[in-house]
Each structure stands twice: as C-alpha cells, then as structure tokens.
Amino acid sequence: MTNKNLIDLEAMGVEQIDKIVRKARKIMQSPADYRHACDGKILATLFYEPSTRTQMSFQTAMLKLGGRTIGFDNPMNSSVSKGESLKDTISVISGYADIIAIRHPVEGTAMAASLYSSVPLINCGDGGHLHPTQTLTDIVTLSCEKGRLDHMKIGVCGDLLNGRTVHSLIKTLAKYEGNSFVLISTKELSVPLYIIDILEKNGCTYEISHSLSDAIVDLDMLYMTRIQRERFKSPEEYEAQKNVFVLDREKLDRARDDMIILHPLPRVNEITVDIDDDPRALYFKQAQYGMFGRMALILLLLQDEDFIISSRETELSVHRCNNPKCVTQSEAYLPNLSYKKLGMQMCDFCDKRID
Ligand code: NCD
C-alpha cells in the first residue's frame, strides 16, 4: 500500500530521502523560481504542543511557495477544548486544507490522524516518539555542510530516551552505509530498545558512552539534545538528569576541527553560549536549512505524482496496545492496528510491543 503521509522517515528508501535533499538544495540555489509553486494551496498547522521552529518554518515554507496557512497553536482555542476527538477535527480540517502538519504530545497521534485525513499529513512530533521533519532538517544540514550522509561517526548526546528527534535521526542515518553511532547519555535516559534493534538490523556499529569528554574526540558530528523536562514523571527525576552533559569550551577543544555540532533546539543549557561563535556550531544555520527541507517536502507531497510513501502491512490485533503514552489509550474508536516484527506484534501507532 502507498500513501502521501510523512509519519516516519522509516517508510522511505534512501533514494526518496535523497530526492527531498536534492530538491531542498535546488530551492536554496534559486528560491525565486518557487515563489508561485503553491499558489492557491493551503497548509493547516495543528499544533497541540508548543513549538517555535517547526511550526514557523512550516508556515514560512508555505508562504515562500506562494501558498497560505491556517491552524492553531493552542488547542484550548479550538473545539478540542470542548472534547472533540482527533478523528472529527481531522475529518473537518482535511476538507479545508490541501496539506496538514500536526504536532501532538501523545505518541502515535500523527499515524492515527492520517487514517482520517483525505489530504497529505505530516508528523511534526508525536510525544517522545518521532519527529521526521527535524531529521530532514538535520540531513539537509549534513548534506550541505559535510557533503555526505554516509561513513560518518555520529555522537548523539542528552535525553536519548524521550528525545524524538534522536529516534528519527538514528533510524534514518542507520539506512546509510558506513555510519557508526556513539550513544552518550545517562543509564536512565538511554535509547529505547527498538532503536538498538534497528541499529543491529542495519549492521551499524554503535557504542554506549557515559562521558561526553571521551566520546567527542573522533566524531564527525555531535548531535546535542535537551533533557525533555515535560516527559518526566516527577520534577525530582528531571532535576537528577539536567546538566549531566554540558558541551563547553573545554570539551569542544578535544574535538576535531571538522566536527560539526547540531542541536534541534530549543537549547536549555546543554551547550554553553560561548561556543555559539565557534565555526563548528551550526545549530542556528541548521534551523534555516530546515525551512528549505520543508519547502521541498511540501512540494513533493503536493506536486510530484511519483512521490508516494509505502505503508507497512498491518493487521488487527486481538489485544490493545498497553503503552500508557499511546494514542490508542485516549482515542477509543481507533482500531487495534499492529504489524509483525521479528515474530512480535508491534503497535502501528507507537511502535511499542503489544503483549
Ligand atoms: C524538538 C522537538 O520538539 O522535539 N524541537 C524542534 O522541533 N526543533 C526538540 C526539543 O523540543 O527538545
């Protein structure tokens, strides 16, 4: 089966991802050629969770393509506050807009929304699960700044458990040949097991590290992330984790001259401000690259008939997903969609194992 929704970059092959990157680079070279590419089209941004960059860069992307935008960034100003279901909201909005970008604090919401959307739908972050368009931002940056997406030693540091940007990034870069990973975090915030499974399935080498100072010395790219305070059960658990890994001048001095530092932003204090002027610090430029990546994605989804995304084969499982953070817990009408992986039944919405 195929569709036009971007829920998880996992569903795309390397050629398709490369096509988005190539398109983004073309737009960057001559933005004026695309000024009317989406004349008359409407993007709806449905942000049920705070955002600065993702929402604004999608809106700017559509405006720069000649289209217009509608949407909300505070669900309490929409009918959600009256108890409207996700299904009803999406069924209505997809009759207004040509394309939808959605962010939600609950895992699997974008996948759930796509079931009821008659127009292309883009996942802009679903809880601690995935954030595919941040990964587009990251790989457009890598492609422009490093000239390649393969054979790199990639360090990811911070909240690897709850950081959805990290999950999407590792899943995508694991598809490219010769990439190896250093996973730098505390034991409590290490990557979910399903991400380790993906690294192993793709034959990628990876190391687990608890020391940024040690890990930094031979990296091509360091991807710093903030500790995701809003996803902790208690303030005490967050307090115990914050500030464990801080990239400062002393640590950066140990890195190679050609290592680049990326961060999806917002930064809290995991990178000291004095590093911002270092030529290796690319996080602000990265945010700008993201806008071009999103322009490319909108164009391909709306205008390229060959740009279709494959869907995995699903079946109805007897049991409902019991991940308390999964959308199936809050939207009761959702079917128990699942898929098989290594003989296990996985939830199609949040990718957790259904027992
Ligand atoms: C990230 C997110 O929302 O997951 N921000 C972003 O979209 N650039 C990272 C974060 O919030 O830490």
Outline, from the CA principal axes?
Answer: globular
Radius of gyration: 20 Å
Beta strands, count: 14
Tell me about the largest β-sheet.
Answer: 5 strands, parallel
Structural class: alpha/beta
Spatial gap, N to C terminus = 26 Å
Helix content: 25-40%
Count of alpha and pi helical runs: 12
Task: For the structure shown, list the relevant keywords.
alpha/beta; binds N-carbamoyl-L-aspartate; globular; 17% strand; 14 strands; 355 residues; 5-stranded parallel β-sheet
What does this structure look like?
The protein is an alpha/beta fold. 33% of the residues lie in helices and 17% in strands. It is built from 12 helices and 14 strands. It has helices at 14-29, 53-64, 86-93, 109-114, 132-146, 164-173, 193-201, 212-215, 235-241, 249-252, 283-303, 327-330, and strands at residues 2-3, 42-47, 68-72, 99-104, 121-126, 153-157, 180-184, 206-209, 221-224, 260-262, 309-310, 315-316, 337-341, 344-347. The strands form 4 sheets. Strands 8-7-6-9-10 form a 5-stranded parallel beta sheet. A 4-stranded parallel beta sheet has the order 3-2-4-5. The protein has a 3-stranded antiparallel beta sheet with strand order 12-13-14, with no helix packed on it. Strand 4 (99-104), helix 4 and strand 5 (121-126) form a beta-alpha-beta unit. Helix 1 crosses helix 5 (132-146), helix 1 (14-29) crosses helix 11 (283-303) and helix 2 (53-64) packs across helix 11. The longest helix is centred in the C-terminal third of the chain and has 21 residues, at 283-303. The protein starts with a strand and ends in an 8-residue tail after the last strand. The mean pLDDT is 96. The site of N-carbamoyl-L-aspartate has 13 residues, from helix 2 and helix 6.
